[in-house]
Amino acid sequence: MTLGTVRGWLRGANRIAVLTGAGMSAESGVPTFRDAQTGLWARFRPEDLATEAAFRANPGNVWDWYAMRRQMVAGVAPNAGHIAIARFQQRHPGRLTLITQNVDGLHERAGSTSVLALHGRLLDDKWLDPPRACCLAQPPLDGRPPRCAACGNLRRPAVVWFGEMLPPEVLAAADEAARTCDLMLVVGTSGVVYPAAGLARAAATAGRMVVVNPEASELDDTAHAVLRGTAATLLPQLLQEEP
Ligand code: BJW
Question: d(Cα 84, Cα 90) in Å, to the nearest integer?
């Protein structure tokens, strides 16, 4: 299926959904999870690192990994793909629902609003255990990670780790968008993590589902079209206005 065909589908679609994954931000310089795994944490799978058990076992290491990622994300910028989505939303209010697995905040920084962030936000913290009165009474003590001075409760990144529920209202809104869209673009995800990947499968039943990815993904077989290319190259071509 060609780019022109998918552009035609987009023109005819009243309800568009876009589901993005780590590949969306790759051209901004943010590493993906399952592509080339280099650097300090190369020997860990995200499944082993992004869990509450890993944090409880070694909060300092996990906190440092997130601190490194926070610093890295602060130094990058949205790419042409993020910007193409945001501009489309601005030109067509209410027509495109943006669902992301990414925690980097780059869609918002590109100007997208009402982003359904399935896996939370990298720059936010929350309490590891339900906060007691003491946790809320005073600012947490600095540390790696910061902690409640009275009870020792730890601050943790406000992201969704394996085995944790996604924010229910965010997942419900994403599910509704997937089940009612005419077309979903699935950009830069390997399609192995659920329930996010299930949204793409639901969209393929509701309407058309198009994968945008330079490499093979688990969702290719279900897609109505697969566009082989990168987010920053293809999204501007897909979402730009007709001349
Ligand atoms: C480009 C590109 C370019 C490169 N342009 N593309 C059903 C079946 C099996 C298992 C499960 C299931 N349902 C639930 C599960 C368990 C589990 C799961 O899915 N496991 C699988 C791995 C097997 N899911 C969960 O645990 C979820 N919770 C849950 O289900 O709760 C239910 C529950 C019920 C009862 C009790 C308790 C709970 C939670 C999942 C949380 C995922 N969290 C992470 C970490 C977030 C925080 C952080 O950032 O540290 O989210 S893991 C990691 O994977 C991150 C990502 O959002 C997520 C997806 O990865 P993504 O985005 O697809 O990235 P990659 O690297 O895999 O792929 C990149 C792609 O980009 C590649 O395809 C490239 O080719 C492409 N690319 N450059 C476009 N320039």
Answer: 10
